[in-house]
Amino acid sequence: MYLNCHSYHSLRYGTLSIDALVCHAAAMGIKELVLTDINTITGIYEFKKKCEGNGIKPIVGVEIRNGSKLLYIVIAKEFTGIGEVNRVLTSYNCDGIDVPERPDFENCFIIYPLNAHRPEQLNDNEYIGIQEEELNMLTRKEYRRLIPKMVILHPVTFSTKKEFNLHRILRAIDNNMLLSKLPESEICSKTAYLKSPQVILNAYRNYPQIIQKTTVILSECSFDFTFETPRNRKFYTGSKKDDLRLLTRLAFTGLERRYGKSHGQAKQRIEKELKVIDELNFSGYFLITWDIIRYSNSVGFMHVGRGSGANSIVAYCLGITDICPLELDLYFERFLNENRKSPPDFDIDWSWQDRDTILEYIFDRYGKDYVAFCGTNVEFKYRSIIREVGKVFGLPKEELDELSKYPERVFRDEVVQQVQKYGKLLEKFPNQRSMHSCGIIISEEPLTNFTALEMPPKGFPIVQWDMHVAEEIGFEKFDILSQRGLGTINDTVRLLEEKRGIKVNIKDTNISKDEEKCNEFLSQGRTIGCFYIESPAMRGLLRRLKCDNYKVLVAASSIIRPGVAQSGMMREYIFRHNNPDKFEYFHKVFEEQLGDTYGIMVYQEDVIKIALHYGGVSAADGDILRRAMSGKGRSLSALQKVKDDFFASCRQQGHPEELSTEIYRQIESFAGYSFCKAHSASYAVESYQSLYLKVYYPLEFMVSVINNMGGFYRTEVYVHEARMSGGKIMNPCVNRSEQQATIYGDEIYLGFMHLEKVESRLGQLIPEERRKNGQYKSMEDFIKRIPIGIETLQILIFIGAFRFCGIPKNELLLKARVLLGDFKPERRFETLFEEPVKEFKFPELKRNIFEDAFDEIEILSFPVSCTPFDLLQTKYRGTVMANELVQYHKKQVKMLAYLISRKHVPTKRGTMYFGTWVDVNGNYFDTAHFPDCLEKYPFQGGGCYLLLGVVEVDFHFPTITITKMAKMPFIPDPRYSHDEDKKYEIQQRMKEDVSMTHRKPYPQEHEIGLPRVKN
């Protein structure tokens, strides 16, 4: 009887999750249910599983609407019918083709609403749905003749009165209007809830023909679908045999390139892997990935293959990854084994500049009907939904700001209470569909057999379900990712060849794994700008470990992850690395399995090893743990079962309960926050490549970091780093600068991109015109050739972009105002240059030497012509410098420093911060600020501070615990010597990098339940 049920996947319309809808139906004894969400099939696969688990026959379809107008309801007779609907919706979503008012579906039933536009003559598969409240219309002759083609239409959208109000709120949000103004046409009927079958049959008791037709439709529909069938593209060449032949040839060609002709161990490993790959029918998956990499290489792009795929020597020999699994003892079974039914998962990074080109190749190569991004449901978040709900209740912005700032506060106002109540109910509701950040599906069959496609603003089609559903129904995604680190490496290599004629084969990992000078930089934490290893926390870890080789860097890449840190084992690893003779292993299993990492669980594999060898859990349970740790596992009940099995097995083996409890505490802390070893190794290779370029080509490297918009820090920090490497930093110049920063010898010219109020279009036009027609001879010549307004011209003057003229800024500004005034750029030829420009005599205007610096702070947010220290009123520069701090363990020091960044960290005593600073010599150091100190001496924004504190040297790394600090004032701004209000205004523009973490505080040594030495 239920031919028209909505879930909350009918976005901003339905109020029931799939689970709630099915459970409610099961409780009422309903045996057949039809899910027909509005213009989407998002929930059908979950619906099938839930129904079958509750003894209900699942039937699926789609309610087709054009805006708010209901056209008809489509119900699939069988699974192929869903494909027919998907193709119509895809044409509508992606190509703008209107949904037909009368569809031509072979394997579907079509139900028209009673009062909707419908054909005069209905086909065998076309019916009219009549709702209970419309039955009285059957007294009229024109409707009575239609009874033989009528079926029961009882829409389901909500289950309680509260949910009906929620539906109205969703409709008001969707229409962006006040709840009180929402028209009836935008909402469902008040009777659109799940009534019992008896109640519905009783309402239609006088029309047995309608009941019988409804029953026939339900009996003729089915939803047969096999979840376990792999649906990715099967073959690369066209057959399994040819795929294996090609894969084998490519693997052995790569073997010779990577290892030489006679490497027995590598040959044996390749043969073993190829056997498993063939048995599991994954040759095509490897070859498709290889094909994408081949194209990438052909156009000169750089990539990084990471994740568990780097465990495979076949992937290494095909060039998909650059990690040798023999070197790091990576086992293939972590990536692929006989028990695994789903395809392996390759994660591949490209530069953020190149990724779209790769995507276009994949869509063109494998066909737009077969390729799409995974979708993702963007959910309502409580803080933002408070604003949405508050708006439809008519609350003013000020109240909404207060409400969203303090969402848990109890308000007396009744309307506010309603907003909070319904806001809470909407948490976790899907709000809109969006594109998965990187997951792409390449299908064997046309994707519209399984889903309608949508076209988000980014321009690549998406399926209507997320990656979890994709995996459940047999699709494994290819992760095509992007990052700025690769862009930096690419641009540095290109810049070296363009500017200095130096060719660097950065893909040759031999040059960037064991360089003496690189290792020295690494151990000193001199890694600003380098991928993944530049944050204050990572630089501190590198110094604590005295990390001076690639293998320790691989471990450090994983130790820094929250999983290891939250378990307390990061601290323990540092101790053991520095004191290898001062600890004992927790248990002999830890020594046998984790000897390389001093008995500490560092990687996902380590956790699995301990679960298997200490806990005695099964391999299947080990995989559940692995998936939970990688964030892919969603079943809490399955994880709880593994925990119960772990403790039961530990007791059976006679392990002490206290030891088992502590070990499982560590395992739990890894969930969602750990790397597999191959992933860490991939990161370490890229980090080392960055470091190699930084060490040997520092200026070109820092220019590329700046142009790729940095990483952890703001542009100013990378400019400082370039200066520390011997670069001369120059302000933008119309005759030397490009849109991006550029370099001539040791002179680094900042780009027009750094001038916030200069449009990128103009920033590109200035150098283009210069290359085409020669350098600009004067400001007047520039104005003649470039369409520019007075405000933008003034910015260029203030930053010194016309300094080649040799004319003071003051005079240039006066000239600009005389020349342009109310001048419109598009009329420059009609007015300004119809006759020669008159020469004006300007009064001589003197400038303070620091005026340029204040101009720079105003435009760039940092000074270029001097350092922030030069602008201080005080001449004091501190008693101790950063490079001397290790000599002052447990001693008090007073320092003057410039704030680079601070990180907010919650503790049991309140908020604390970790600060990063530079001293007057430009060297970095770190501070810790505890809540009691911050209460008296808070941070006051960017700038220079006088610091007093006690030095703590922790494994070669000094940190100052601050007891007092004060922000130091700049000299008065000489540009406003007669304006008291503005004299100190610019100082407030100095920036700082502020980051936050919401993680729980890391456990202290006494809170970890494992002793370092056995009793």
Categorize the overall geometry. globular
How would a crystallographer describe the biggest sheet?
Answer: 6 strands, mixed
Number of strands: 22
Q: What is the helix content?
A: 25-40%
Mean pLDDT across every amino acid position: 90
> How much of the residues is beta strand, in percent?
5-15%
| Discrete helix count | 37
Classify the fold: give the CATH topology of the largest domain: TIM Barrel
Termini Cα gap: 71 Å
The CATH superfamily of the largest domain is known as Metal-dependent hydrolases
Q: Major sheet: order of its strands?
A: 1-2-3-4-5-6
Class based on secondary structure composition and strand pairing: alpha/beta
Identify the CATH class of the largest domain.
Alpha Beta
The tally of structural domains comes to 6
Question: What's the multimeric state?
Answer: single chain
Low-confidence stretches: 830-835
CATH architecture of the largest domain: Alpha-Beta Barrel
Radius of gyration: 34 Å
